[in-house]
Specification:
single chain, 154 residues, alpha/beta, Urease, subunit C, domain 1, 4-stranded mixed beta sheet, 3-stranded mixed beta sheet, 6 helices, Metal-dep_hydrolase_composite
Length: 154
């Protein structure tokens, strides 16, 4: 009897919990550097129970599961918020961030760093330069400022 109970308990734990919602055929950005993307997400009782491939998510689907075909669209982890600046944040992280730059030397250093990350011909985007007005009112002409930028990306 004891062996039968262990056997039933073991195999019942192998059966996947069924999801209320499955989003599949998606580009899921996981925010996990070791596994940055996935294709599908399974949710039960408002909790994510699986993130992985379209094939593997099938075991979480039954007749009561609401299935959303994302059609390759981006799915992001997060919370409901009616005011986000996702694109701007990405530009700060992946592009040129000059928010903390107030002088010419740090500007040139930051430009050099970002220039080394970008392949030739790719535009450097971002900026968000907090020293814009200070530089604008400086003795360096507009052509001089442009030349400092064009030195890195003509």
């Amino acid at each position: 009897m004891k062996l039968k109970f262990i056997f039933i308990f073991f195999f019942s734990s192998l059966i996947a919990e069924k999801a209320d919602l499955v989003i599949q055929n998606a580009y899921v950005w996981t925010v996990d550097l070791s596994k940055p993307k996935a294709e599908a997400v399974a949710v039960r009782n408002n909790k994510i129970i699986f993130v992985g491939s379209n094939k593997a998510v099938q075991k979480y689907i039954d007749g009561n599961t609401n299935i959303i075909d994302a059609g390759g669209k981006l799915v992001l982890p997060g919370f409901n918020d009616n005011h986000v600046h996702f694109e701007s944040t990405c530009r700060i992280v992946t592009g040129l961030n000059l928010l903390d730059v107030h002088q010419e030397k740090p500007f040139i250093s930051r430009m050099r760093d970002v220039h080394e990350r970008f392949t030739p011909g790719v535009w450097i985007t971002g900026g968000l330069w907090s020293a814009y007005q200070a530089w604008e009112s400086s003795s360096i002409s507009e052509e001089g400022r442009k030349a400092k930028i064009d030195f890195f990306k003509p």
